[in-house]
Amino acid sequence: MEQRYATNPDQIPGMGTDELRERFLVEAVFVPGEITLVYTHHDRVVVGGAQPAGQELALLPSDEIRAEYFLENREIGIVNVGGTGTVTADGETFTLPTGACLYLGRGVRDVVFADGPGAAEHPAGGAQLYLFSAPAHTTYPTRLVLPGEGTTRELGDQLTSNRRSLEQLIHPGGVQSCQVVMGVTSLHPGSMWNTMPAHTHERRTECYLYFDLPEDARVIHLCGQPTQTRHLVVADRQAVISPSWSLHSGVGTAAYSFVWAMAGENQAFDDMDAVPVDQIR
Ligand SMILES: O=C[C@H](O)[C@@H](O)CC(=O)C(=O)O
Ligand SMILES: [Zn+2]
User: Fold this and answer.
1) Which protein residue has the closest C-alpha to ligand 1 atom 8?
2) Spatial CA neighbour of 213 closest among 256, 184, 163
3) Does the annotation place 171 within a ligand binding site?
4) Nearby residues for ligand 2 (ion, Cβ within 5 Å)
């Protein structure tokens, strides 16, 4: 498991492109036949992906978490951005069609990922299970959320090119968890901006996985403190780690979707501090 220590915002002014990308971008989330995991010390979040590619992949602990099994002290949110996949948790198999979300709570011992029926028919060629995990101090039940079963908010406007549908999947009003708040936002055709006007939330770390972005398109992702912004150029199925002090907004060269997921002090989705556009530098 790759380990990334926390970054102090005071370090940003001296950072160039390569260092920003090393610290905040996860370029290879999905590797066929593998589970990739990045452990960040920002709220001890683990983010990554599982792409079975015809194999069965077991989620195993690693030295960084010093646990008997991966979910001994953790919970995990899983969103499938590829073809139908399955997750077998302590012997119970859940089928995740494209866009489905599964929550596994603390104490689930055996977790195995695999392709589901018809997985290869998806453009991704198989299941691609995005993983977001945080420490958990109690157990909540396993829950499967099928596409459309979440709580949807319609945001933005075509006139400001930020028309988008935000679906909350794991959140206090839906699937119960200790820390993880997770959902998917999809830009409407012709809209390019997500999370603009921007915001920060010093109570939570947030990760974005951008997906369904055309291969030759990119998202210019704004990060950093509001008056000391930087950007990351992000390709399809790459993830961004946003520390609590960082705004997180993006504009694409084509429409796209992204999985957002947060962990930290609280689970209050609306606990965010707006950054007026005219104050961004
Ligand atoms: O704290 C909330 C997260 O940044 C996202 O849910 C915001 C988002 O999907 C959007 O506005 O497009
Ligand atoms: Zn946010």
Assistant:
1) 195
2) 256
3) no
4) 206
* The token pair that represents 246 in the structure block: 């960082």
Residue 248 in marked binding region = yes
Distance between Cα 200 and ligand 2 center (Å): 6
Question: 132-181, pLDDT tens digit by residue?
Answer: 999 999 999 999 999 999 999 999 999 999 999 999 999 998 999 999 99
Residues linked to residue 199 through DSSP beta bridges, in sequence order = 274
Nearest ligand by distance to the CA of 246: 2
Superfamily of domain 23-138+147-268, CATH level 4: Jelly Rolls (2.60.120.10)
Q: Compute CA 182 distance to the chain's CA centroid, rounded to the nearest angstrom.
A: 7
- Closest ligand relative to 200 C-alpha: 2
User: What does the pLDDT look like over 191-239, one tens digit per residue?
Assistant: 999 999 999 999 999 999 999 999 999 999 999 999 999 999 999 999 9
Nearest CA to ligand 1 atom 4: 195
Closest to 78 in 3D by CA, of 91, 90, 87, 88:
87
ipTM of the complex: 0.98
Domain ranges of the chain: 23-138+147-268
List the one residue out of 181, 211, 265, 228 whose CA is nearest residue 15: 228
188 is annotated as contributing to ligand binding: no
The preferred substitution site among 132, 219, 260 for testing ligand 1, maximizing ligand atoms within 8 Å of CB, is 260
Residues 6+ apart with CB under 8 A from 72: 61, 106, 107, 109
pTM of structure:
0.98
